[in-house]
Write a structure and sequence with these properties.
single chain, alpha/beta
């Protein structure tokens, strides 16, 4: 009997260990090449300052970011998402939704939960976190009109971590999913999320879903964030998931094993409670995966002040994670490396804020001390990098789910050219807030 072409094809399996070695080696080679090609730039800047300052400046705006991008791209090219062993799971799950003044969106969120194609039972618990509006009435309306089994409980102490911990006490199922009250699920989101954790090894205790932007048509700020979620955030999570160390199983949409949650004591009193929780998992040797096909859509900030609050809060959460669990305290070498990357992010954000932005201003007046004509050569590489990321997302995520990438050219151009200029000072502001223990602002 003749074998078909597909049967003759042999898949070359590369162990994670060697994927990491290849990605790390290629990123180091890229950094060495970058230093070689930019030596004249480095020498000119050293003549105006000194070699230590020149290396510090160019390292923060070029060498280190280039090394990280090279590691990311090579890792993604080597990545092959493990096939799902269980395609139609039926285990009962509990969905926790912390709600604070969510009367405008909670009904719609519950409606999308109702439309899930998951064949197992979904127990829904909404924790009303001291809302001052009609959130409870909207939950009741959804329960009656949608014929949905929703349990609403109250938590008077403010803070998302308090609400989730209160809800955790009511969980009786093996798996618990957290969902933000303003986040809408793709109809197969729960199915893919549970399929991934059911198909994984026992030491995988959480799986982060994919969160994308729903309200990108609202204004230019939302359009720019659409590309950040679609390309940057999703790709970074995919790279981290390759090494079983996704650094944030975000509260917006992730699944956890209930037993593991109870073992770590639930969510901590932190502004980045999901970051701290995930790092706590990693420090115990628990793996955290990422599932690209488990998609949820969220509303992003459309006002600059709200965007600043959100992203500075994320930056604070990262510092909280570093404070609670040091990278060198992680059990796995992969986790040590991945969490260790976060140690250099403040350096990069500092460099972009105090070197790149002033250098760009000076370049506009013909003073090419930091930013010069050679910098333009980075744009083709940046475009190639994002093309690779875009191609994967479009082919392996959107196409299988019958979704289409929105035409958003203006947002993409702004994202490529100016997003880092916006995000670095905001992140730096978040680091400073945490270092000086400034007042926490969730919304």
């Amino acid at each position: 009997m003749k074998q078909t072409k597909d049967e003759n094809k042999k898949t070359v399996y590369i162990p994670i260990k060697y994927k990491f070695i290849i990605a790390f080696t290629m990123s180091i080679i890229w950094m060495i090449l970058s230093i070689y090609l930019s030596f004249s730039w480095l020498e000119d800047l050293a003549n105006d300052t000194n070699w230590v300052i020149a290396i510090f400046i160019i390292g923060g705006i070029a060498y280190v970011p280039g090394w990280l991008n090279a590691f990311l791209v090579v890792s993604l090219l080597l990545d092959k998402q493990p096939e799902l062993k269980i395609n139609n799971p039926d285990k009962p799950v509990t969905l926790l939704i912390a709600a604070y003044n969510e009367e405008e969106g909670i009904y719609n969120t519950l409606n999308y939960v109702k439309e899930q194609d998951y064949i197992g039972n979904i127990n829904i618990i909404v924790i009303n976190n001291n809302s001052k509006d009609n959130t409870k009435k909207e939950i009741k309306r959804a329960k009656e009109e949608l014929n949905l089994a929703v349990e609403c409980i109250d938590e008077l102490k403010p803070g998302k971590f308090n609400a989730l911990n209160k809800g955790l006490k009511y969980v009786k199922t093996k798996y618990v999913i957290t969902l933000d009250a303003d986040t809408l699920l793709h109809k197969s989101a729960v199915k893919y999320l549970i399929s991934r954790i059911e198909s994984s090894k026992d030491d995988i205790k959480a799986v982060a879903g994919t969160v994308l932007v729903r309200n990108s048509r609202d204004n230019l700020l939302a359009r720019v964030q659409e590309w950040d979620y679609f390309l940057s955030i999703a790709s970074i999570k995919r790279m981290q998931g390759l090494y079983q160390g996704t650094l944030v199983a975000q509260g917006a949409f992730s699944v956890y094993k209930t037993q593991a949650l109870n073992e770590v004591g639930g969510w901590s009193n932190a502004i980045g409670e999901d970051i701290v929780l995930t790092w706590d998992f990693l420090s115990r040797g628990y793996g955290v995966y990422f599932e690209p096909l488990a998609i949820a859509f969220t509303d992003v900030p459309t006002k600059l002040k709200h965007f600043i609050k959100q992203r500075s809060r994320w930056a604070r959460g990262m510092i909280e994670g570093l404070r609670k669990v040091k990278p060198w305290e992680q059990k796995s070498n992969y986790y040590k490396f991945l969490t260790g990357i976060d140690l250099v992010l403040p350096y990069m954000d500092f460099s972009f804020t105090f070197f790149w932005i002033p250098g760009l201003v000076l370049a506009c007046f013909g003073k090419f001390y930091i930013v010069g004509p050679m910098t333009v050569l980075v744009l083709p590489l940046t475009m190639l990098t994002f093309y690779i990321l875009y191609s994967y997302q479009e082919k392996n995520v959107f196409r299988p789910l019958n979704l289409k990438v929105r035409r958003n050219k203006r947002g993409f151009i702004i994202f490529i050219l100016f997003y880092q200029i916006l995000i670095s000072p905001i992140s730096l502001y978040g680091y400073i807030q945490e270092l000086f223990n400034m007042k926490r602002v969730w919304k």
